[in-house]
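Q: What changes when calcium ion is included in the input?
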Amino acid sequence: MLAGGVGGARFLLGVRAWARRAAPDALGSDAEITAIVNTGDDMWLTGLRITPDLDSIMYALAGVNDTERGWGRVGESDRVAAELRAWDAGWPWFTLGDLDLGAHIARTGWLREGVPLSAVVARLTARWPLGVRLLPATDDEAETHVMTASGTLHFQEWWTRHRAAIPALGFEQRGVSSAAPAPGVTAALAEADVVLVAPSNPVVSIGTILGIPGIRSALATTAAPVVGVSGIIGGAVVRGMADACLSAIGVETAADAVARWYGARNSGGVLDAWLMAEEDAALVPAVESAGIRSAAAPLWLRGDDTSADVVAAALALAGIR
Ligand code: GDP
Ligand code: CA
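A: The predicted holo structure follows.
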């Protein structure tokens, strides 16, 4: 599957729960899950390489994420962050907890020794039995920047500091068009039984992954069906501010509009099928007329079991039951 951070993690928990429940019948008992994760939100901060989406997913799968705050590790303190703030180092509005900082220090040390990000992710994730292989979309540094009337900001500054309240005129995916897929990414897509596109932010999570040329072409040629799940329910994003990203690229915040923007794979786009929320059932014909198979089902991701049901509905669209 292709995934961003928190939405990607919620859906991935469902994929893992579905695999434990149904895969032995549907795909064989050795079903493997690979998540290709957005790296466009990554950044350097106080000398450390931070990879928010990879970490959100790693912590959620390991069960050590802070579900109340929505980021970082459960039970961590902010003592180091308070020290950094006292020195005016880093971004005062971007608090990194102490346990989370441990991962950033380990990652940065390995990167500085020349270990590629994908191998760093393998080392970090080996600590827990995640049941999912995590691959960064690319080992290259490719970061999303946001163009506004008063200049260009790093994505994190626009998103976290300004809560996407400054109108975005567009996104600059710096380095994405020359980035190469990380080792294993195109093979995973080529060998997949099915490719799932998580209900992640279509623009700055999935869109950034799709902007890597080798990934787009691997998606175009894989024999596996490509099935997307809508992160928009009843004309609104479920959590967060993805609507600000969609309006910046001129796409309506509506499940059918996002499907048409992804496009049908048989006409140069990425989707064979698109699962929408039951609240959006009336939009199914509009999506199908764009050449994308579609259906409606409950899409609220609330814990392993309901999320596994969402995954089962997406897989049913791909003919896997
Ligand atoms: P981020 O990188 O942490 O911003 O997270 P992602 O890009 O992976 O996912 C954010 C998207 O997940 C949001 O645009 C939401 O619409 C979507 N999302 C979050 N919770 C749910 C849910 O319960 N159901 C569905 N269908 N989408 C969700
Ligand atoms: Ca993200």
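Observations recorded in class: The chain is about 40% helix and 15% strand.
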